[in-house]
Write a structure and sequence with these properties.
about 40% helix; about 0% strand; elongated
Length: about 80
């Protein structure tokens, strides 16, 4: 099995890893292994993106036009009529 040494890890990150491990009833080492496994796991073949899943859920609601892409758009406050 491979072994990794992580140098120069910030103290606050190490502390957060320890707290997370305690919440999951694991050692810090086991928690890091769990995080690494999840990070490199391939998505399932049947998996769909969030937008696709939302669209499918509401396809029978009568919405017939595509929703605009908002990624990268400037954030602005909602406007309400009085």
């Amino acid at each position: 099995m491979a072994q990794f040494v992580v140098r120069n890890l910030e103290d606050d990150i190490a502390e957060k890893l320890k707290k997370r491990a305690r919440r999951h009833a694991r050692s810090t080492e086991a928690e890091v292994r769990h995080i690494l496994r999840a990070a490199v796991q391939e998505p399932s073949a049947g998996g769909h993106t969030l937008g696709t899943r939302i669209a499918r859920r509401f396809q029978r609601s009568g919405l017939s036009e595509n929703l605009p892409e908002l990624r990268g758009a400037a954030v602005r406050a909602a406007e309400f009529e009085r």
